[in-house]
Amino acid sequence: MAKVFLICGKLCSGKSTYAKQLQAAHQAVILSVDEIMLAVFGLYAGEKHDEYAASVRRYLFEKSLELIRAGVDVILDWGFWTKAGRNEAKMFYQSRNIECELHYLTISDEVWQARISQRNQSVRAGETTAYIVDSALAAKFEAIFEPPAGDEADYQTNVEKVFAAGDMRRG
Question: 4-166: which CATH number, 1.50.10.10, 3.40.190.10, 3.40.50.300, 3.40.1280.10?
């Protein structure tokens, strides 16, 4: 039976790039909240952003079941910033006897700040479609983010070791 990969890491930590690597290795489908949010609402969903994102996550949980039933591995590329969110996802799949792996990307503060700066430059230059991460948004997500503790993550990967310096813009 197909399985699910949960990609956990800070905003701008390389999750999308890592997801693409997993996609190639497992012939999987990536389901991304940001991809749908940007396609439907553009860069500005306003005050309803969090509400819309929650609706998209619910939709993608259900869509993932269709893919799994079709024998396709699924990669959920949406951060899993809180322990409660990770537990919810794990229980969703485990209650359906679907294998679920949590992949956690670690990143140093120095590299994280550099990635945010590089991403913002790429967005402003029109080279990529992503959200601008200003200091308020970075602080919001840093306050929300709960790193997986102990053996919560099935795989832990350090971003600096995985991606070459020139490939660090995405994610």
Answer: 3.40.50.300
